[in-house]
Batch of 2 targets.
Target 1
Amino acid sequence: MRLEAILDAPLARAERGARRGVARAGARRGVGRARSASPVHAAAAAPAAPASRRGAAPTYHPISRNRYVSRARMYGTTPACQCDPATGDCGEQCMNRMMQIVCTPRTCPCAPRCTNGSLGKRAAPALEIVEVRDALTQCGKRGLGLQTPVRVRKGAFLGEYCGELIDLPEAARRVREHYEHTHNYYFVDYNTWAGELLDAGLRGNKIRFVNHSCEPNCKMEKWLVSGSEQDHTAEFQLGLFALRDIEAGEELSYNYGWSAFRPIDVASGEEGEAYTPMRCFCGAPSCTGWLGRARKAPQSSRPPSPVTALPSATPVPPKTGLRAKRPRGRPRKDAQLHDADGRAAAGAGDAQDGGAAAGAGDAQDSPAETPRRKRGRPRKHPPGDAHAVRAAADVGPSAPRAAAEPVPKRRRGRPSRSDGAPSTGAPAVAEVLDTSAPDAPAQDAAAPPPALPRRRRGRRGHEAVAGAAASEPDGAAEARAADVGAEAGAEGDVAARVPSPVRRARGRPRKSGPLDELAALPARAPTPPAPRPTPPPAEPLAMPVGVYFTLTPTQVAHISAQPHRRRGRPRVRPVFPHASPPRWRRPAPESDEAAVRALLL
Ligand SMILES: C[S@@+](CC[C@H](N)C(=O)[O-])C[C@H]1O[C@@H](n2cnc3c(N)ncnc32)[C@H](O)[C@@H]1O
């Protein structure tokens, strides 16, 4: 008896805590105590613990706003809308609302009547969410689900997807320690380019229970709540909205856009090929049978990844949405590496994270388009001048609409492969892959040295992988690099794809060298290349997450107009909206004497 009491104590404490938490939440939202006694609720809202301890699905801590685990929250301003405070309340015509930007009460002209505030504070939909919480229900093979007990109109806000902001190494750790054996994943993509996810597995709210459907009745949207992409201070909120009128008792669902999460995929255009297929049990008439893209899932030759898939947020929009941004010109030579559709999809997916910019830039690396870049007006700034790019795209959060203007300038200004300037763009895995395959014959001594542009592309791609490795201390990036290499083609050897030191040499090509002497020798019968040793299977690090495709064209243009970002975590810049200038900024010297004195100090 005493032993049982001891064993039951943690669970009992957890359930008491869960009841208290639910009761508190219910009291805030006007829900009675009786509902919190449901065992489903107790299990769902109990404090988090590894599932292996109790042999049950992992529980979670209920939270009502995002927690920042891998970094501190960044603060910044959002643009003020143009609504008329006399008549408007930031309704459907609010510019911020249309761009999925949350109004800041401090700057919104309609405050305090603004209805476009933080998703977590939107009062009217919150009532619906409370009702949805009580409708947690067993959904067979899909586990728990969420349904609404009241009728919901189209476009209604149903709740914010709350979770913990984590980076990729932390996500990998959580998958291995908490989620892998449950096959339940609660990651959604937060900032692709920064490698950040929102995880509702350990801490979250009821929106985490919304299942995937191939014919969803909801959609997940990503709203900017503060800061800007340009300053790397952007923070977001994810919200669930009704796609159509939803009847009472209907289960809520959205299209996860399930895919393997690898930041470098953003640039490669190979999104969707590497994830571990998971069967979809949504039961929709048009169900593809798989979470994600059915046409690609069965083709995956990779063994099931231990770090498997997880849901994403929003449905993949028609890929034609960004096709207009594709550089004009002849069709690309390499259909796989420069897949326009893949690029468009990837660009759209991370458009919020600057991915569209990278997509456009990488597309211009296509040899077919190189001559086109040299036409037109001469550049005002030297190629690769980040300031020039920034100046062309200098749109602050207070001028979101002007962001669409500089897009073409920026793209023209991107350094060509032949001008020798360092790339300002984010190197893509596509570059690694593109370099590898064509340059493989260069190992043959009789072959001429490879062309310089390809060497550059390969080097940049290599640096991308190396940079990622440097930023991830536990070697996750190496694993990912190997993973990407394995997924890139039949060879699966990322080491063989990384250019040799000779090919990575900077500067003009040598006039003569060992390779030239070899090339000058009389031709001989080509010897078949020696078979490459099969590399040991790399530990996969594909963490399936979704990609958000919810940007409006204006938002896409806004992000496309911004300079490329570094990979890895963004540099956090302090924001001083109201404070005096920082101390380290000395006032400009007024005279030569003052300037000399300032130099001497
Ligand atoms: C965000 S959770 C959704 C809530 C989950 N059903 C639960 O019980 O906690 C995502 C997980 O639900 C399952 N799931 C959701 N939709 C599904 C579907 N259409 N078919 C199969 N499994 C699904 C998958 O295991 C997935 O990893």
Target 2
Amino acid sequence: MKIFSADQIYKADKSTIEKEQISSDMLMERAATRLFEWIHTRLQGAQVNIQLFCGIGNNGGDGIVLARHLQEHGYNIQVHVVNYSEKRSKDFLLNLERLKDRKIWPDFINEDSSFPLISPEDIVVDAIFGIGLSRPLDQWVANLIGHINASRAFVLSVDIPSGLPMDRPPVSEVIEANHVLSFQVPKLVFFLPQTGIYIDQWEILDIGLDTEFLTHEEVGYELIGPPDVLPLYRPRNKFSHKGTYGHAVIIGGSYGKIGAVQLASNACLTVGSGLVTAFVPKCGYHSLQTALPEIMVLTDDDDENIEQITIPFVPNAIGIGVGMGTSEDTAKAFGAFLKKQENPVVIDADGLNLLAKHQELLKSVPAQSILTPHPKELERLIGKWDNDFDKLEKTKKFSSKNDCVVVIKGAHSITIYKDKGYVNSSGNPGMATAGSGDVLTGMITGLLSQGYEPLAACVFGVYLHGLAGDIAVHQYGYEALKASILVENIGRAYQELLRPPNRENSQES
Ligand SMILES: NC(=O)C1=CN([C@@H]2O[C@H](COP(=O)(O)OP(=O)(O)OC[C@H]3O[C@@H](n4cnc5c(N)ncnc54)[C@H](OP(=O)(O)O)[C@@H]3O)[C@@H](O)[C@H]2O)[C@@H](O)CC1
Ligand SMILES: Nc1ncnc2c1ncn2[C@@H]1O[C@H](COP(=O)(O)OP(=O)(O)O)[C@@H](O)[C@H]1O
Ligand SMILES: [K+]
């Protein structure tokens, strides 16, 4: 699903109004009707106190229209206009008049007003600012937002939590939304660590913006869910054999860190690679052979570290770096290994740390190789960033300059290739556990070895990895989820992804 910038949403708005030959207030009516339907379906007329805080722009206009619908259906409402500017939007004013025609008189909150009491049992509708927020809040508006946040009432934000800009981190107070009803498209800020913290749940309301515009407009980011990954899936062929699915090699490990290679190799095989060989220092031989009978093992001459990488065949895919250490000898072996590679490789963990330490090695990384840093590894690689938006821009530049795919791992991992980002939607905090990144490296390597293109291997692999975590969490809960359990659930993740749509929900039934 595409993620649009504020400018693009305004364009979609304009294009819809022109194509459908409707007025802008009709679009506002449509948006607010969707909001009303959402609330009415859940509340069914319950007499809870609903306090609507409306700004003076179109976000506020949505709130004012919603208030009218709620009142018409007998809900208990209080409407507050947050009077932060004299520049009221045309559709806000039109709908304010309509509200007054129905004898609803909002109270106007100004700089010197006292704030209304909000009980924890109330529902707050936050329609103060939408995507038009363009500068820091006046102090009294920030105080009002603080007052709403302190109320412990359920807060439903219209389009975006008020105070959250679309393209940079907030500088003052932001509404902490329990639920965001966002129009037509998800917003990038929902998925970034600095800004996503203001949102518990979000949902899209379809307000019928021009489909042609939405389909053809190029975007910088996409949100990746099942409809996006399913077309990437490469089905198995009846007459295939293990050679069809490639021979993958996982290189890594050092004394005390052989488990990382075990997890990655197991994930690589479980995601479907035909054959898997692990290359480790000698100390890893017995444990790997015992733990993973399906996997072959090659060893370095050194007992504790990788010092020379010799693979006596041409693998279909290689994943390197997990648990590998960063000793000088390993660095030399890594450099010599990279120089010999012609096909894309997957580089993780200490492989990334070595690249950061010896930046001259970057030119030996084959085109379209995959780098899977967590934020600390990314910082070592591309340097410090000012904020999450800057981080994404810097990563895009790094990816273009070095022709590599970068998977920024986190709660919503983002795969970057050149000027495009793919935001993952699966996964959960149970995956914040040792070794879950090693599992991802194995999975991506296993997908590459089966013939997935590098970008597809990342987008598909990251989604499948998160889905395995989401399935596992049902059985284990967040705390007890371990990396090896992720591997056990890769098969179920495939089944879940490929499950035909439920017949009962399909239109024929
Ligand atoms: N597009 C669509 O498809 C649809 C959009 N809809 C709705 O419209 C919303 C966007 O509305 P919007 O453009 O009127 O902006 P909004 O967020 O209400 O802000 C109001 C104005 O405040 C101003 N301002 C900014 N920062 C400020 C500050 N710190 N302190 C004081 N003032 C500040 C700024 O004006 P400025 O003074 O900068 O000219 C800004 O314009 C969108 O989120 C959705 O809810 C739906 O109705 C239908 C379909
Ligand atoms: N809160 C979270 N929600 C979803 N996924 C997460 C979360 N925390 C971590 N993950 C995922 O777990 C993995 C952690 O990787 P990494 O930090 O490299 O771990 P390790 O080095 O221990 O293997 C990444 O794929 C990341 O996206
Ligand atoms: K809002």
